[in-house]
Specification:
Blueprint: H1 2-16, E1 22-27, H2 38-51, E2 54-59, H3 69-82, H4 90-98, H5 125-129, E3 133-135, E4 143-146
Length: about 150
């Protein structure tokens, strides 16, 4: 998940938001970007160090991912677009997702990520303790800020 954010920042965000000092990310509470996942926070720390950005993370409460406005506004249209069509190949899936457009004109860009990613990466207690994470007063487990490490 952080790699997607990094690619977006390097390709679009960095040039479009030149004066940005902070990046706010909203995320579901499950999967690779879960508030419980150490690797997610560890990789966000590396991204913060690389860019100098302060990263603010706001997780949706468990079971409420449909509060995510993009998911809510977009995924129903993807489902409608491929309704009744057999998803037999990656090419069919990519084509169906890529041709999705909402009533308000939101379009989808989609491609296969052919990179392989290691699994089972563990972040030790020592590595985790080095993350410059500041929990918010309200649900600090779901809402937190990661600041660049000065010695990075």
């Amino acid at each position: 998940a952080v790699e997607s954010i990094r690619k977006w920042w390097m390709k679009i965000g960095k040039s479009k938001y030149k004066k940005a000092k902070t990046l706010t990310i909203t995320a579901d509470s499950g999967g690779s970007n879960s508030y419980r996942t150490r690797l997610w926070k560890f990789e966000l720390q590396k991204f913060s160090n690389q860019t100098g950005l302060i990263i603010r993370v706001r997780h949706f409460p468990p079971g409420t991912s449909k509060w995510n406005k993009i998911e809510h506004r977009l995924f129903s249209f993807i489902s409608k677009n491929w309704r009744g069509k057999p998803l037999l190949t990656h090419a069919i899936i990519i084509n169906l997702i890529s041709t999705t457009k909402t009533e308000k004109g939101l379009e989808v860009k989609c491609m296969i990520d052919k990179n392989s990613y290691p699994i089972g990466i563990r972040i030790s207690d020592e590595e985790y303790a080095k993350i410059k994470i500041i929990p918010e007063k309200f649900h600090g487990d779901w809402n937190y800020t990661i600041k660049p490490q000065s010695n990075a």
